[in-house]
Design a protein that fits this description.
The complex is a heterodimer of chains A (653) and B (418). Chain A is α+β, with helices and mostly antiparallel strands. Chain A folds into four domains: 23-121, no CATH class; 135-218, no CATH class; 220-336, no CATH class; 371-581, no CATH class. Chain A has helices at residues 2-23, 27-34, 36-41, 48-55, 62-70, 119-134, 139-151, 158-165, 171-188, 192-202, 208-214, 248-257, 267-276, 294-306, 316-324, 337-386, 394-411, 415-440, 449-471, 498-520, 522-532, 534-539, 544-569, 578-591, 596-616, 621-638; strands at residues 74-77, 83-88, 93-96, 103-107, 112-114, 220-225, 235-239, 282-283, 286-287, 327-332, 487-489, 495-497. In chain A, strand 2 (83-88) and strand 3 form a beta hairpin. In chain A, helix 16 (337-386) packs antiparallel against helix 23, helix 17 (394-411) runs antiparallel to helix 18 (415-440) and helix 17 (394-411) runs parallel beside helix 19. By secondary structure, chain B is mainly α. In chain B, a hairpin with a 4-residue loop joins strand 3 (352-353) and strand 4 (358-359). The chains are: A alpha+beta (653), B mainly alpha (418). At the A-B interface, helix 13, helix 19, helix 24 and helix 26 of A face helix 5, helix 6, helix 7, helix 12 and helix 14 of B. Chain B: One of its GO terms (cellular component) is plasma membrane.
Chain lengths: 653, 418
C-alpha cells in the first residue's frame, strides 16, 4: 500500500516537473531576471554585478550562459522579459532554455532583442570565464585557457589562476600554472613582499617571458628636478649632464621641455632672425656680406636682441649655469624601491646566465660554420692539399652538386628519397666533370701551377655562365626533408637547427672517409706515392696518370656532395661556389697543405674566428669577414706553412 | 746578362729595345687618328662615348703593363692589382665628388639672404654626399678631400702603402707561387667587403658617382673633355710603358727575371730577393693607382663591385692572352680583350641562329672567353704577342757584338768578316 502511494506520489511529481519548469523560472533565469535592467543597458561600467552573479552562482549552467552571452547568442524575449539562447531556424529563431537546455519553441525575430555586449563587456565576461576554463574537466580546454593567459593577462586573472592550481591533476599543466602564477604575481600582486619573493623565485629562469616581465619593472625615464629629487619618487640613478648617458644638448633640451629654461637659439633660427631683419644690406649695422663669419652673425644678433626685437642669445655660460642649477635623474616607473632593487638583481643574474648560454650558442654556431667550411674545403684538401693542383673551378663543382640536387628534386618529389638519390648522383656527376677537367686541361699543366690557376679560372667563369644560361639568374630552391626541418631547442637562448647538425655529421663522415681512403686503400697509397715522387712511383708500376685522374675525380666528387649539403640551407644560384672558394682556399692554406687534420683545424679556426668577430660586432657580417681575412693574412706571417706544417721530405720544395 | 760583355760599347736604350719606339709610334698615330675623328676636335666619326671607351681601354692597358711587370717579369701572380686600380679611382673620386658637391652647394646657397658660413657649407656637402648611407658626418678618410694636390698624392700613396705593407708581410715570410696568389686574392676580397659596408666612409655599395663632371670645367663640353682624358690616358700609357721598358732592360730586369725563373738561385747569388720583389710590387701598385685615377673619371662611377677579386683575375687573363713577359703583349691583350668584350656584351655582335637555339652573345660571350682562355693557356702560352716571334724569325738575327757561336768561338766579329 505504502509502496503504491509512494509510486503514485512519484508519478505525480515526475509528471508535474516539466510543468513547473515551464511555469516557474529556473535558478539561472532568476539570476538573469534579477539583473535584467543592467544586462539590457549593456554598459561596461555597470555590468560587473550581473557577471559576478552569474559566475558566482555555483550553477553548472553558468559557463554556458557566459559563453552564449559573450558570443552574442543570448536573446531577450520582449513578451515576458525572459532570456534565451537563440539560433536562427527555419521559421524565426529557435529558443533554448538556459536552465534545462530544452528547446522553448520558436519566435519571430521582431519578438526578440539580441543582447549585444561591446568588446569591453566581452573582455569582462572572458575574465569571468577563465575561472571556469581553468578548471574545465577537459585537459585541452584548460591548456587553451592557460595559453591565452600566457599571451596576455591582467591583474584580475591572478586570483582565479591561484585558485585553479590546487585542484590541477595534470603535472605539466600544474607546473605551467605555477610558473605563470609567479610571473603574474611579479606584475600584479598588490603586496610588495610577495612580488619580491616571486622575483627571487624566478631569478634563475632563462625564459624570454621572465625577462619580458622583469624589464618593465626596471624601465626608467629621465626627469629633471630643481633641487634634489623628492622622497616619493623611486630614483634609479643620478645623471650628470655632459656624461655619456646624458649629453649636454639632451640635458638642456629636457630643461627647455620642462619649461625650466629658455630655448637656445639654433643656427637655423639665428639665420632666420637675421634674414628677417635686413635693412639696407645690413643687420643692426653689421653688413650682410660679412656674415659668412659666425662671430659677426652673433654680433648682429646681439645688437638685435639689445633692441628687443629678438629673444637674447644664450651664451654657453648661460647654458652651463642653467644645467648646474638642476639635477637630472633616471626615475623608475615602478614606485616600490624594494621591487626595483630585486628586479635589477634578478635581471643581472639572469643576464649573466644568458651570457653564458649565448656563448654556448655561439660555440655551436661556430662549430656549424666550421663544418660548412670543412665540407667545402675537403675536396680542395685532396686536389690542392695532396696533389698541389690549384683548381679555381672547385666552387663551380660545389654549384654543380647543388644543381644536381635541384634537378633530382624536380624528378622525385619525395624530399627524403630525392636527397638519397641526389648525393650519389652529385658525386657521380662532379666526379665525371673532375676527371674530364683533369684529362683535358690540368694534366698538361702539372709543372706550371700558376697557369693551372688561370686555366681553371677560365673553366670556372665558363661553367658559371653556362649554368646561368641553363637555370637563369634567380635562386632555385633545394628543399630539405621535413625531418631535417626545425631546430633542437635546449632553452630559450640555445638552439641549433637539425640541418646544421646533419652537416656537422656529414663533415665528420667525410673526414673519416678521407682518412680511410688515404691511409687504408690502394688508391690512397698510390696517391701519396705519386704526389711524393711521380717518377719513382711510375718505376714501381703505378700509373701516375690514372692515379692523378682518380684522385682529382675523388676531390671533385666530394665537392659535389658538399654542394648538395650547402644547397639545403643556401639558395642555389650559379654564384653559389664563388661565395665559398676564397674561404675554402684559406681553410686549406691556414690549416697546412697536405694534412687533413690541418684542414679541420683551419676550418675550426676560421669558423670560430668569424663567429667571434660577429659577436663583437653583431650588426655587421661584412666587417666580420673583412677582419677575419686580415687576421688570416697576419696569421700566415707567423706560420707560413699553416697550422700543421709538413716537415722533412714530404714538404717537397 | 751575357748579352752585353764589358768589352763592348753599351748600346743606347732604344737600340736595345726597338719595340719601344714602334710602340710609341703606334700609340702616337692612334692618338692622332682618334683626335681627328672625334666629335670634340675632328670630323665627328667617333662618338664621345666611344672616345671614352678608348680612353678607358688605354688606362686598362696601363694597368696591364703593371701587371705584366709583376707577373710576366717577376713571376708574382698578383690577384690584387685591380684593387690598387680601384683605390686610385676612389682617391681621385673623393676629390671630384667633394669639389663638385661643394660647387653645387655654394651655387644653391648663393641666393640666400645671409652668406653661408664655412661650417654650413661643409655640413651641406656632408648631407649631400652621405645622405644615401644615412649619415651627414665626414669620415676621417675624407680629411684631405678638399685638396686636389693631396688627393693626387694619395692616388699613388694609398695603393703604394697598401702594397708595401702587404708585400713586406707576404715576401718576408717567403709566401710564393699559388699561395701568394691566394693571399693577394684574399686581400682583394677583404678590401672589397670592407668598402661594401656603409660605415666604411666611402658610401658603401653606392660607391662614388658623378665623376664624369669635372669641377670648375662646366663650360667644357663632354666631347672635348673626353679627348682631354684620352690624351692624358695615352700620355700616361706612354710614360708607363717607357718606365716599364727601362726598368726591365737593365740589371734590375735581369735580376727580376732571374727571380721568376729560380728564386732560390738568385738569393744564393746574394741578391735581396725580397727587396726586389717588394720594390716592383709597390711601384706597379702605384702605376695601377694612376691608371685607376684616369679610368674612373671617364667611367663616371666607382663602387666596390669593381674591386672584387674577379676583376683582378680578368686582368691576369688579359696579360696572359696578350702574352706575358713582353710589355706590348700586355697592352695588346688588354686592348683586344676589353674591346672585343665591349663589342660582345654591348649586344652589337650578331646572334647566331642554329635553328633549334639562338646563341645570344650577351649570354655566351663569357663562356667563349673562359674557353678561349683555357685554349690560350694550353696551346699558346706566349699569347697573341707570340705572333711577333714569327715575324722576327724571318729577319736575320742581329749578331753584332755577340759571340759568333761554337764554331767560331775564338774569333771576334772583326776577324770573322775579314
Amino acid at each position: 500500500m505504502l509502496k503504491r502511494i509512494l509510486l503514485a506520489a512519484c508519478a505525480v511529481f515526475l509528471l508535474s516537473l516539466p510543468a513547473d519548469a515551464q511555469d516557474e523560472t529556473g535558478p539561472m533565469q532568476a539570476i538573469l531576471q534579477a539583473h535584467s535592467d543592467i544586462i539590457l543597458e549593456s554598459s561596461r561600467r555597470t555590468i560587473q554585478p550581473a557577471i559576478d552573479a552569474v559566475a558566482g552562482s555555483g550553477l553548472p549552467q553558468a559557463q554556458a550562459v557566459l559563453e552564449a552571452w559573450q558570443a552574442r547568442d543570448m536573446w531577450y524575449r520582449k513578451a515576458d522579459g525572459l532570456f534565451f539562447r537563440a539560433e536562427p531556424g527555419d521559421d524565426g529563431y529557435l529558443l533554448t532554455d538556459f536552465d534545462t537546455g530544452a528547446t522553448a519553441g520558436t519566435a519571430p525575430k521582431d519578438a526578440l532583442d539580441q543582447i549585444k555586449p561591446n568588446s569591453g563587456i566581452r573582455a569582462l565576461i572572458g575574465t569571468a570565464l577563465v575561472t571556469f576554463q581553468l578548471n574545465d574537466p577537459d585537459r585541452t580546454r584548460r591548456a587553451d585557457a592557460l595559453a591565452s593567459l600566457e599571451r596576455g593577462a591582467n591583474a584580475d586573472l591572478l586570483a582565479p589562476l591561484r585558485a585553479s592550481i590546487e585542484p590541477e591533476q595534470d603535472a605539466g599543466l600544474k607546473a605551467r600554472k605555477q610558473r605563470l602564477e609567479r610571473l603574474l604575481t611579479i606584475s600584479y600582486d598588490p603586496d610588495d613582499a610577495a612580488r619580491v619573493a616571486a622575483i627571487g623565485d624566478m631569478s634563475g629562469d632563462l625564459g624570454v617571458d621572465v625577462r619580458a616581465t622583469l624589464n618593465p619593472l626596471v624601465a626608467t625615464r629621465l626627469q629633471v628636478f630643481e633641487g634634489a629629487p623628492p622622497e616619493t619618487v623611486n630614483v634609479a640613478r643620478r645623471l650628470d649632464s655632459g656624461s655619456d648617458a646624458l649629453s649636454r644638448d639632451a640635458a638642456y633640451a629636457m630643461l627647455v621641455e620642462a619649461g625650466l629654461a629658455p630655448a637656445r637659439i639654433t643656427p637655423a633660427s639665428l639665420r632666420e632672425a637675421l634674414s628677417a631683419n635686413i635693412s639696407d644690406g645690413a643687420v643692426a649695422g653689421v653688413p650682410v656680406h660679412t656674415m659668412s663669419d659666425p662671430a659677426r652673425r652673433i654680433e648682429a644678433y646681439n645688437a638685435l636682441a639689445a633692441q628687443g626685437i629678438v629673444p637674447p642669445y644664450l651664451t654657453e655660460q648661460a647654458v652651463d649655469d642653467a644645467l648646474a642649477a638642476h639635477r637630472f635623474a633616471a626615475i623608475y616607473a615602478e614606485p616600490s624601491p624594494a621591487v626595483t632593487a630585486a628586479a635589477e638583481a634578478a635581471l643581472q643574474r639572469i643576464n649573466t646566465r644568458v651570457g653564458l648560454n649565448q656563448a654556448l650558442d655561439l660555440g655551436l654556431d661556430a662549430v656549424s660554420l666550421a663544418s660548412i667550411y670543412f665540407l667545402a674545403a675537403i675536396g680542395l684538401a685532396i686536389t690542392f692539399g695532396v696533389m698541389g693542383v690549384i683548381n679555381m673551378a672547385h666552387g663551380e663543382f660545389i654549384m654543380i652538386g647543388a644543381y644536381t640536387g635541384y634537378v633530382v628534386q624536380q624528378v622525385i618529389p619525395n624530399h627524403t628519397a630525392s636527397i638519397i638519390v641526389a648525393i650519389p648522383l652529385a658525386f657521380a656527376v662532379t666526379f665525371a666533370a673532375g676527371v674530364a677537367l683533369e684529362r683535358l686541361v690540368i694534366r698538361w699543366l702539372y709543372n706550371r701551377p700558376l697557369e693551372t690557376l688561370l686555366a681553371t679560372f677560365g673553366v670556372s667563369i665558363a661553367l658559371q655562365q653556362l649554368f646561368k644560361n641553363i637555370f637563369g639568374t634567380q635562386a632555385r630552391p633545394l628543399t630539405a626533408p621535413d625531418w631535417l626541418g626545425g631546430s633542437l631547442v635546449l632553452n630559450d637562448v640555445v638552439s641549433i637547427s637539425y640541418i646544421r647538425i646533419a652537416i656537422f655529421v656529414l663533415a665528420m663522415i667525410f673526414l673519416a672517409l678521407f682518412l680511410f681512403v688515404m691511409k687504408r686503400t690502394r688508391l690512397g697509397l698510390e696517391t701519396r706515392a705519386v704526389t711524393q715522387n711521380p717518377g719513382m712511383a711510375g718505376a714501381m708500376g703505378i700509373n701516375p696518370g690514372r692515379v692523378n685522374m682518380l684522385t682529382f675525380g675523388l676531390g671533385s666528387g666530394i665537392a659535389g656532395i658538399a654542394g648538395v649539403a650547402i644547397g639545403l640551407f643556401a639558395k642555389v644560384t650559379s654564384e653559389l661556389g664563388q661565395d665559398y672558394i676564397v674561404q675554402s682556399f684559406m681553410t686549406v692554406v691556414v690549416g697546412g697543405v697536405g694534412n687533413i687534420w690541418g684542414t679541420l683545424l683551419g676550418a675550426g679556426l676560421i669558423g670560430g674566428l668569424q663567429k667571434g668577430i660577429e659577436w663583437l660586432n653583431p650588426s655587421n657580417t661584412l666587417a666580420a669577414q673583412t677582419y677575419m681575412i686580415v687576421f688570416i693574412i697576419i696569421f700566415i706571417q707567423f706560420r707560413p706553412r699553416g697550422i700543421i706544417a709538413l716537415k722533412g721530405r714530404a714538404a717537397g720544395d | 746578362m751575357s748579352r752585353t760583355p764589358l768589352s763592348q760599347p753599351r748600346r743606347s736604350f732604344v737600340a736595345r729595345n726597338p719595340s719601344v719606339l714602334v710602340f710609341l709610334a703606334v700609340l702616337a698615330l692612334f692618338t692622332l687618328l682618334v683626335t681627328g675623328l672625334s666629335e670634340g676636335f675632328g670630323v665627328g666619326l667617333i662618338s664621345t662615348s666611344f672616345v671614352k671607351t678608348l680612353g678607358k681601354t688605354l688606362t686598362l692597358a696601363l694597368v696591364a703593363v703593371a701587371m705584366d711587370l709583376v707577373w710576366g717579369y717577376a713571376g708574382i701572380l698578383s690577384l690584387g692589382h685591380f684593387a690598387f686600380f680601384g683605390l686610385g679611382g676612389y682617391m681621385i673620386g673623393m676629390w671630384l665628388m667633394y669639389e663638385r658637391t661643394r660647387q653645387i652647394v655654394t651655387d644653391s646657397m648663393a641666393n640666400a639672404t645671409i652668406p653661408p658660413s664655412e661650417s654650413e657649407i661643409v655640413d651641406a656637402i656632408g648631407t649631400q654626399i652621405f645622405g644615401v648611407v644615412g649619415s651627414s658626418e665626414f669620415p676621417l678618410v675624407w680629411a684631405f678631400a678638399d685638396s686636389l694636390a693631396l688627393q693626387l698624392l694619395l692616388v699613388v700613396a694609398v695603393p703604394g702603402l697598401l702594397a708595401l705593407v702587404f708585400g713586406w708581410l707576404a715576401f718576408r715570410s717567403r709566401v710564393t707561387g699559388v699561395y701568394l696568389s691566394i693571399l693577394t686574392q684574399a686581400m682583394t676580397l677583404a678590401l672589397a667587403l670592407y668598402l661594401f659596408q656603409n660605415d666604411s666612409g666611402l658610401r658603401g655599395n653606392n660607391g662614388l658617382s658623378g665623376l664624369q663632371n669635372i669641377p670648375h670645367l662646366d663650360h667644357v663640353p663632354q666631347s672635348v673633355l673626353s679627348i682631354w682624358f684620352f690624351w692624358a690616358s695615352a700620355a700616361a700609357l706612354a710614360l708607363g710603358y717607357l718606365f716599364a721598358a727601362w726598368i726591365v732592360s737593365g740589371k734590375f730586369g735581369s735580376v727580376i727575371r732571374g727571380i721568376r725563373d729560380n728564386e732560390a738561385r738568385v738569393r744564393f747569388l746574394g741578391y735581396s730577393v725580397e727587396g726586389y720583389k717588394l720594390f716592383l710590387f709597390t711601384v706597379t701598385a702605384m702605376i695601377a693607382g694612376i691608371a685607376g685615377a684616369l679610368y674612373y673619371p671617364q667611367a663616371g662611377i666607382i663602387n666596390p663591385a669593381e674591386i672584387a677579386p674577379i676583376a683582378s683575375i680578368y686582368l691576369a687573363v688579359w696579360v696572359a692572352i696578350g702574352g706575358r713577359g713582353r710589355l706590348y703583349g700586355a697592352v695588346i691583350g688588354a686592348v683586344f680583350v676589353s674591346l672585343v668584350s665591349t663589342w660582345f656584351t654591348g649586344g652589337q655582335a650578331p646572334d647566331i641562329n642554329l635553328g633549334f637555339y639562338t646563341i645570344s652573345w650577351v649570354d655566351w660571350w663569357t663562356i667563349l672567353l673562359g674557353l678561349s682562355f683555357v685554349a690560350v693557356t694550353l696551346f699558346a702560352p706566349k699569347g697573341i704577342g707570340g705572333l711577333f716571334d714569327l715575324w722576327a724569325g724571318f729577319r736575320h738575327p742581329d749578331r753584332h757584338g755577340a759571340d759568333l757561336g761554337p764554331d767560331h768561338g775564338a774569333l771576334r766579329e772583326k776577324e770573322a768578316t775579314e
